[in-house]
Specification:
By secondary structure, the protein is of the alpha+beta class. It has one domain. The chain contains 3 helices and 3 strands. It has helices at about 25-45, 50-70, 80-90, and strands at about 5-10, 15-20, 95-100. Strands 1-2-3 form a 3-stranded antiparallel β-sheet. The longest helix has 22 residues, at about 25-45. The chain starts with a strand and ends with a strand.
């Protein structure tokens, strides 16, 4: 994935993590991967009827809510990578989070 070398910045609260901005070429590569992934998911769920898909989505929504409630920090908690990652989701679509490999 192509990352703009001048578009890399540290994530506050975690010296190991950083945010990067993709180059145009990297964005195109990501878009290609995302399209292929979407096709795969559609194919995966293709055997479910409408009611089954609605039930699956409702269950996945419950899982998401459970995880969010579990991960929600108390007001007095110091900043964490999880909180910072949540906050960064609203940033520019071209930014992705990275960290140690």
């Amino acid at each position: 994935m192509n990352v703009c070398p001048r578009c890399r910045r540290p994530i506050e609260g975690d010296r190991r993590a950083y945010a990067v901005r993709l180059t145009s070429r990297g964005k195109r590569a990501f878009d290609t991967m995302a399209t292929a992934h979407e096709r795969w998911v559609v194919e995966l769920l293709g055997g479910l009827d409408s009611g089954e898909r609605k039930r699956l989505y409702a269950l996945l929504d419950r899982v998401k809510s459970t995880i969010a409630a579990r991960d929600a920090p108390a007001a007095e908690d110091p900043p964490t990578v999880t909180r910072l990652a949540r906050a960064s989701r609203n940033r520019n679509d071209n930014e992705i989070k990275g960290g140690p490999r």
